[in-house]
Amino acid sequence: MTTHLKGQKMYLAGEWVNSEKVIEVRDPQDNRIIDTVPAAAAEDMLKCVEEAKEGAKIAAAMPVHQRMAVINAAADYIEKNSERYARTLASESSKTIREAGKEVGRAIQTLRISAEEARRINGETISFDQSPGSENRVGYFYRFPIGIIGAITPFNDPLNLVAHKVGPAIASGNAIIVKPATVTPLSALLLAEAFAHAELPMKVLSVITGHGSEIGDALVTHPAVRMISFTGGVEAAEEIARKAGLKKLGMELGSNSPVIVLSDADLEDAIESSVSGAFWAAGQNCLGVQRIYIQEGVFEAFKEKFVGRATDYLVGDKQSELTDMGPLITEKEAIRVEKLVNEAVKKGAKILTGGERDGAFYSPTVLIDVPENCTIAREEIFGPVVLLYPVADLEEAIHLSNNVNYGLQAGIFTKNIDLAHKAIAKLDVGGIMVNDSSDFRIDAMPFGGVKQSGLGREGIKFSIQEMTEPKVVCFKLSN
Q1: Which one of 161, 177, 408, 445 has the minimum C-beta count within 10 Å?
Q2: Are 47 and 76 in contact (CB under 8 A)?
Q3: Among 58, 65, 227, 46, which Cα is nearest to 152's?
Q4: Closest CA to 154 of 19, 344, 284, 57
């Protein structure tokens, strides 16, 4: 029996267009083809940039109330079609239907916050008379859009992370070109569908599907593209930075997130939060809990209960409401995780549960006694694997937490406010969640990290700051 595929079109400057070549989009659960999308060529991207030049002028001229209305209308459209969006997201990605439903809800919220923040792009008056000789000058600064933004998005949040770039870009009066992950392009095209339905002016938004090797350079290196907003891995980020030239870079990269559990913590809360943080989206989450440092007095109790919860985690059909965790995005990724775990075991680590692969599925895995020289201890796993370590005290936990070249977010569980503040001051990260795992985030907060975890901050208000520039206005008054 042959399955008829609809075949999606890409969204080039407001037009739905095909290409001669296509990319097969597969469900990672069983590797079946669920649809196809155009495989754009460099020429398509160059044409898109040329159209976006006009789109940037159109976007900048849109009054704030129009930007708000369009963004809210797009959010309304997604809300009305939320089940279709969630089913599509769950089909093309690693997320279960429950996880996909939550992501769709977050994308709606991301757009609504973007609409609200559009009204708050404000400047300030400047006291020019603070400088001797400038007593007869008054003025202010305001923020203006930078023009064309190139957005490169990952597979792990294929709708909300696109919304996190598109919403602020439109709110701040920019044109934006999105290059979604090759393996999960359908959700990004659904976002474009919502904006088309909301009557966003032509040429302001494009979603161009294709292989990064074919179209990436045309977007990244083009002098008319004034900012690259990238979410992905460190190696790709370094290559983009080398090629981009003199333009803004916003980069949300990887992590190796630590969680600290002190002896006075609510263990049930710490375990529940950390299990979810470790295995959400099959561990393919930049905020995912990777290392847990537990004070020695409660280590054994924590370990036993944590392993029990991980063992009970239901892995299976993504479209079932009962499933806790689905597959990794490809079998290749599952094999990569398997190799990392096997390397750690060869060097002395012990598997308490998990460590088994079936195609693209990899079971929730808990390790102890992991040596520091293992790759899995120092780099981002991006899979359903968590490492447990006993520590003597908070000082040791902080030292070990900081002993990697990442710093996105961290979590600490304690009832002692003094110890919490000590961790806040000394942990070298972009965000600290107290009595929550490193995985907690709301879409309005500033989001980003230090070291190899990124450059700049996302979160709608903070993305808008990155996507605009201040312009100073000064009036010299007559005596």
Answers
A1: 445
A2: no
A3: 227
A4: 284
20 is a catalytic site residue: no
Tell me if 438 sits within 8 A of 99, measured CB to CB: no
Contact status, residue 58 vs residue 204, Cβ threshold 8 Å? yes
Q: Which of 286, 380, 458, 466 is catalytic?
A: 286
Alpha-carbon span 400 to 291, nearest angstrom: 10
**93 contacts: CB under 8 Å, gap ≥ 6:** 28, 100, 155, 156, 158, 184, 187, 281, 329
pLDDT tens for each residue of 348-402: 999 999 999 999 999 999 999 999 999 999 999 999 999 999 999 999 999 999 9
Provide the 8-state DSSP code for 403.
S
Residues 401-446: pLDDT tens digits?
999 999 999 999 999 999 999 999 999 999 999 999 999 999 999 9
How many residues are given for the chain? 479
Residue 124 a catalytic site member: no
Task: Write a three-state SS string for 41-107.
Answer: CHHHHHHHHHHHHHHHHHHHHCCHHHHHHHHHHHHHHHHHCHHHHHHHHHHHCCCCHHHHHHHHHHH
Q: By the 8 A CB rule, do 106 and 160 touch?
A: yes
Domains assigned to the chain: 10-253+454-472 (3.40.605.10), 257-443 (3.40.309.10)
Confidence at residue 7, expressed as pLDDT on a 0 to 100 scale = 87
CA 181 to chain centre: 12
Neighbours of 341 (CB within 10 A): 24
In DSSP notation, 413-464 reads: E-S-HHHHHHHHHH--SSEEEETS-TT---TTS-B--EETTEES-BSHHHHH
Among 51, 314, 334, smallest CA distance to 208 is for 51
Instruction: With beta carbons less than 8 A apart as the criterion, state whether 56 and 175 touch.
Output: yes
- Tokens, residue 372: 């520091």
CA–CA distance from 154 to each of 93, 111, 285, 469 (Å)? 11, 18, 10, 26
Q: How far is CA 208 from CA 57, 171, 189, 218, 232, in A?
A: 20, 21, 9, 12, 17
Q: Which amino acid belongs to residue 157?
A: D
Q: Among the options 117, 252, 333, 458, which is catalytic?
A: 252
